[in-house]
Amino acid sequence: METNGNRYQKGILLGILVGILWGLDGVLMGQVGKAPIFTDTAAAAAAGVSSTAFSLSPLVTAFFHESFCFVWVALVLLFSRQLKQAFHVLLHTKKGRATALAALVGSPIGMSAYLLGIQYAGAPYASSISVIYPGVGALISYFVLKEKLSKRAVLGIATSLLGSFMLSFDSSKAVPETFAKGVLFAALAVLGWALEGVIIGFAMKHVKGEDDVEATPQQLLCLRYFIAMLAYAVIVLPAVKGYPLAGAIVSEGLVLKYAGIAVLGAMTYLCWYKAVDLIGSAMGTALNSTAALWTIIFSALLFKAPITPALVLWGLVIVAGVFIFAVDPAIFKKKNKTGL
User: HSE-up of 255 (CA within 13 Å, CB side)?
Assistant: First the structure.
């Protein structure tokens, strides 16, 4: 029988794993994005890639990332006999439709902007800025949904925003010339993911009368990736004339790399949902924010990326702010009282 202490320890380990996986996911996506088809105009032109698709190549790579994430999560649900129920939720419940709306905000906007941020500013900076989305989501909920914020939450949000603001003004020679553009895209990713969380939160709290229809977080995650895949395939790629680039990605074998990286993406969310189930959303969200630090570590260890003192300092400030916002010190008192 699993004790409370074991559940807590398992949840902490899963939460740490989430940060590691997402940090590695971002670093590897950024590295694959340095392939000649994305950086050499002559190579892209020879493959029939338009200038628009070349400049917005992260939108095409996001299609592969989200599509393969859907495949891997769908396989998990298929073997656990939950896949049919997931699509029933989408077609017959308001919560399923709210998940579809949230997916459109969180993936074509959030994920695309995140990858553009990686391309223009580098993975360590884009990741460090992107982890403030829970705080921004809380602010949106405060003003739109009239949800209350504690003084601790306000302090944590202010701390993480300060770190993000200071990080965006890193004047080190190590940052690329397109750094400012990358920061703007990372900020757009924050807004997209924050709105995704607000929409899902609103649906879960305010949609009534559907208690007879059970939907697990894994099923909603599958729907999120499915809707994102459709949005990219039907809207985004045709809009940027991205199918020739998608074909080149397949013919050059890069598609296999995206399939492998998407395993990390799918595992990230599956582990995150399980961690939230074991230790709560606050601690799960806080541990998720450590992805910013893991991105810095993996970038330096695997690809010798330059790490500036400002990146380390303000990255730590951002993560500290998320912990202040998300983690109530009272949970540690409860932990001691219950002997966990």
Answer: 13
Q: 């705080």: which residue's tokens?
A: 135
What's the rounded Cα separation, in Å, for the pair 68 and 2?
Answer: 33
What tens-digit pLDDT sequence spans the chain (340 residues)?
556 667 878 888 888 899 899 999 999 999 999 999 999 999 899 889 999 999 999 999 999 999 999 999 999 999 999 999 999 888 888 888 888 998 999 889 999 999 999 999 999 999 999 989 888 988 888 888 777 878 888 898 899 889 988 887 766 667 788 999 999 999 999 999 989 888 877 776 655 555 556 778 788 889 999 999 999 999 999 999 999 999 999 999 999 999 999 999 999 988 887 887 787 766 777 777 888 889 999 999 999 888 888 889 999 999 998 888 877 666 555 555 544 4
Query: Over the range 65-97, which residues count as b (16 or more CB within 10 Å of their CB) and which as e?
Result: bbbbbbbbbbebbeeeebbebbbebbeebebbb
**Count of other CB atoms within 10 angstroms of residue 327:** 18
**How many other CB atoms sit within 10 Å of the CB of residue 170?**
18
Tokens of 11: 């949840």
Spatial neighbors of 201 by CB under 8 A, at least 6 apart, are 137, 141, 145
Model confidence, pTM: 0.87
Is 96:204 a contact under the CB 8 Å cutoff?
A: no
The three-class DSSP label of residue 77 is helix
Q: What is the DSSP letter of 145?
A: S
